């Protein structure tokens, strides 16, 4: 009985989680605030009134988790609505078109969602983004320069200059005496084992330091991995459905946004790829003369988001990469604030600076890297254009550590936006789009239809063959094959990271043919047992038991190949491997346990003289 219940339970779960795929997807428009701000009821009302005024019918319009989702009956209405909303919505909001799952709420509430569709099936936008490794290396050298200065000051070792050598990846350290030079070199070698130190042949009191080849590789890997994670976080913060972000090669990241057809809006979604810095305000400077270009040495003029100039020291107190958490809220006077949490290294830097800077002003600088749109002779994108803006200036009230707060923010919405940006993280190095392409929804629909035709034809031919060749037992095998298809779809829908691609459909078609292999082995063994004179009951028992090891060995080798394909492959190859692996596991269950349960239900414990095989 427990085996019957197991088969029924597994089949029921498979059917339940495969059901959402029957409802399809609705053409939809998703409206969200820029840089992660929430949309509200006023945005929903404005969108509804605009569409009613233009006589555009909608299926539904709801506000969910800070985003407005408007569903349409067809793609034509969706595209017309997108053009209208783009012109009427303020710059504070982004509208993106996509295909939204249409399953009922009761299925959604139990986590039953349709399979995620890849770009080749749903249509969407594909970006190839290149990480500016030169800037990443430059920032690392700048940080090394600042660290050397603070470390030597902490050790009370006197130096003349510490600077980056022009057009090189080396830092030159010039000390005041031979004794200080030896002590400094010994101290820095112990503190920075990943660096290479060499003497300066032109100056007896100087030496050079640079990153080792291993450290450079680690820096490049870190820049790619960190940027990949942050891009994914920011896309998730903005609510783009089913994004795919993955590394390609040593300097590039692939971003796929299935269902999104508007490349301009998709670029806006990725436009939050920026970084933050905390810098000290140079209070010696006169902002009136600074605006004309006269600033003290070691300082520069940046402009506040409200338009007035702010003179900042060029030395960076803390980069945004040290921020581990941020939360918006209100201070004791009910003014907007953002609470910041730092990692241990960032906390130590902030503590060391603010210890001697109480009463001084510190600025939060928002830095955005905009693509230059130009390439060099080799076709490689030129470095992006750096745009800096002061978003906040605050007075340091006391010594800060791993936690502090930013005040002086204009309104709660701005505080909320800033906290979202900080939580998403700051990019280690700027990135820019070097390739973009769009797969239209009509092409995606053609791919789905072609794939479904292949599945249906393969399924039909296999059903016909099994029914004609194995008769009643062939009918049982066909039932198992149908259950196998349902379970593949159900499992694909349950796994959050699984995406159905066109090669994935090929994997399902292959699985349809492979799924009956186990039953062919079992049925042929039953025929052999019957030919040897065994009774029908004995023939079925020995047929299943004897064929199991052969079936297991054959499927486990294919499963190993699928796992290796998934491990080393990306994109279409991984999609094929996922469906193949799931199909192997489900087919073994349905072909061995499922068919035996059905056959046993009909002939178990009965006197039978002949089998329909």
UniProtKB/TrEMBL annotation:
Domain of life: Bacteria
Gene Ontology CC: one annotated term: plasma membrane
Bilayer disposition of the protein: Multi-pass membrane protein
Biological-process GO terms, alphabetical: intracellular protein transmembrane transport; protein targeting; protein transport by the Sec complex
Sorted UniProt keywords: Cell membrane, Membrane, Protein transport, Translocation, Transmembrane, Transmembrane helix, Transport
Protein translocase subunit SecDF P1 domain ranges (all copies): 224-283
Pfam families: Sec_GG (PF07549), SecD-TM1 (PF13721), SecD_1st (PF21760), SecD_SecF_C (PF02355), SecDF_P1_head (PF22599)
Its job: Part of the Sec protein translocase complex. Interacts with the SecYEG preprotein conducting channel. SecDF uses the proton motive force (PMF) to complete protein translocation after the ATP-dependent function of SecA.
Annotated protein name in UniProt: Protein translocase subunit SecD
Organism of derivation: Pseudoalteromonas luteoviolacea DSM 6061
């Amino acid at each position: 009985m427990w085996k019957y219940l197991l088969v029924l339970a597994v089949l029921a779960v498979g059917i339940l989680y495969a059901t959402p795929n029957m409802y399809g997807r609705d053409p939809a428009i998703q409206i969200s605030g820029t840089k992660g701000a929430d949309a509200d009821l006023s945005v929903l009302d404005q969108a509804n009134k605009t569409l009613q005024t233009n006589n555009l019918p909608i299926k539904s319009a709801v506000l969910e988790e800070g985003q407005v989702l408007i569903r349409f009956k067809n793609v034509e209405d969706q595209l017309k609505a997108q053009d209208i909303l783009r012109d009427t919505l303020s710059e504070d909001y982004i509208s993106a078109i996509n295909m939204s799952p249409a399953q009922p709420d009761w299925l959604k509430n139990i986590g039953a969602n349709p399979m995620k569709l890849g770009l080749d099936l749903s249509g969407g936008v594909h970006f190839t983004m290149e990480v500016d490794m030169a800037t990443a290396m430059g920032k690392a050298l700048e940080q090394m320069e600042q660290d050397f200065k603070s470390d030597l000051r902490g050790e009370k070792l006197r130096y003349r200059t510490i600077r980056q050598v022009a057009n090189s990846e080396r830092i030159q350290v010039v000390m005041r005496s031979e004794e200080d030079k030896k002590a400094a070199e010994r101290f820095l070698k112990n503190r920075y084992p990943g660096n290479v130190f060499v003497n300066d042949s032109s100056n007896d009191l100087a030496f050079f330091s640079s990153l080792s080849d291993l450290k450079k590789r680690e820096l490049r890997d870190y820049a790619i991995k960190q940027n990949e994670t942050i891009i994914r976080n920011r896309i998730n913060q903005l609510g783009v459905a089913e994004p795919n972000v993955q590394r390609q090669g040593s300097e590039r990241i692939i971003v796929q946004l299935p269902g999104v057809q508007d490349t301009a809006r998709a670029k806006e979604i990725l436009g939050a790829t920026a970084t933050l810095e905390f810098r000290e305000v140079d209070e010696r400077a006169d902002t009136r003369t600074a605006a004309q270009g006269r600033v003290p040495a070691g300082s520069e003029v940046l402009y506040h988001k409200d338009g007035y100039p702010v003179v900042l020291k060029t030395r960076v107190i803390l980069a945004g990469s040290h921020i581990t958490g941020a939360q918006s809220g209100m201070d004791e006077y009910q003014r907007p604030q953002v609470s910041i949490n730092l990692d241990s290294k960032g906390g130590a830097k902030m503590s060391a600076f603010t210890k001697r800077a109480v009463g001084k002003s510190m600025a939060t600088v928002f830095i955005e890297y905009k693509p230059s749109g130009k390439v060099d002779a080799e076709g490689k994108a030129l470095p992006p254009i750096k745009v800096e803006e002061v978003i906040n200036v605050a007075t340091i009230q006391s010594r800060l550590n791993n936690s502090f707060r930013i005040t002086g923010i204009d309104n709660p919405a701005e505080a909320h936006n800033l906290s979202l940006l900080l939580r998403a993280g700051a990019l280690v190095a700027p990135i820019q789009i070097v390739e973009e392409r769009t797969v239209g929804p009509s092409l995606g629909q053609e791919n789905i239809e072609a794939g479904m035709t292949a599945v249906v034809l393969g399924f039909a031919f296999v059903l016909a063959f099994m029914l004609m060749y194995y008769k009643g037992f062939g009918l049982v095998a066909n039932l198992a094959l149908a259950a196998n298809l349902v379970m593949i779809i159900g499992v694909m829908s349950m796994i959050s990271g699984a995406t159905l691609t066109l090669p994935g459909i090929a994997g399902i078609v292959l699985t349809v043919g492979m799924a009956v292999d186990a039953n062919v082995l079992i049925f042929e063994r039953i025929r052999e047992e019957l030919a040897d004179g065994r009774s029908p009951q004995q023939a079925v028992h020995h047929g299943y038991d004897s064929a199991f090891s052969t079936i297991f060995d054959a499927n486990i080798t294919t499963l190993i190949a699928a796992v290796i394909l998934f491990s080393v492959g990306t994109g279409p190859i991984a999609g094929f491997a996922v469906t193949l692996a799931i199909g192997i596991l489900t087919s073994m269950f349905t072909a061995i346990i499922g068919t035996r349960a059905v056959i046993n239900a009909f002939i178990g414990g009965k006197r039978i003289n002949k089998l329909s095989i």
